[in-house]
Write a structure and sequence with these properties.
The chain has 171 residues and is an all-beta fold. It has 1 helix and 12 strands; from the N terminus they run ββββββββββββα. The protein has a 4-stranded antiparallel beta sheet, with no helix packed on it. The termini are far apart.
Length: 171
């Protein structure tokens, strides 16, 4: 704290508390005219201010890239400078992505795209300390993977039908 004397019987106190300064304080003022002194005490309460969680996830400009039919676990994490363990919430995820909150500030985005999910997606999640939430958007690209054709998927025999083919015909 700093006291600034205006030299006219008044003055001001300037105090800029930090995040770790929450609590009650007593400030003692002493006025002295050269012969006599008088004191006054003032109670000051510095209120706690919540700080938002800090999210550790891929940079929004980076794209997570995997192939169709791959299974991939993307780890994300958050911490809170006030000591609260953040919880994770899925805001907008593709249907093949599952958010698994581990309960300790860490989470996994489990990606399980199938062969029809090629394309570009956004995964939007948030970390919350119960007072403040921070949203993270993660880009995702699912690469198209060529699949071998299945010759039997081209034929739809009935239950009583028999498929006859020579080995030369199946090549």
């Amino acid at each position: 704290s700093t006291f600034v004397d205006a030299h006219d019987g008044t003055g001001s106190v300037v105090h800029t508390p930090g995040y770790d300064d929450a609590g009650s304080y007593v400030i003692r003022f002493v006025a002295f005219d050269g012969d006599l002194a008088d004191t006054a005490e003032v109670s000051v309460t510095v209120l706690n201010v919540n700080r938002a969680p800090v999210v550790l996830a891929p940079d929004p400009t980076e794209i997570v890239e995997i192939n169709e039919a791959d299974v991939y676990g993307l780890s994300i994490s958050a911490y809170d400078l006030d000591g609260t363990i953040p919880t994770w919430l899925a805001i907008d995820l593709p249907e093949f992505v599952t958010l698994i909150d581990k309960g300790n500030g860490d989470a996994t985005l489990l990606l399980q795209p199938d062969h029809n999910d090629a394309g570009h997606y956004s995964m939007i999640v948030s970390a919350s300390d119960a007072d403040t939430s921070v949203v993270a958007e993660i880009g995702l690209s699912i690469n198209d993977v060529n699949q071998e054709p299945n010759p039997f998927s081209l034929v739809s025999p009935g239950l009583d039908d028999v498929i006859r083919a020579t080995s030369a015909e199946l090549v």
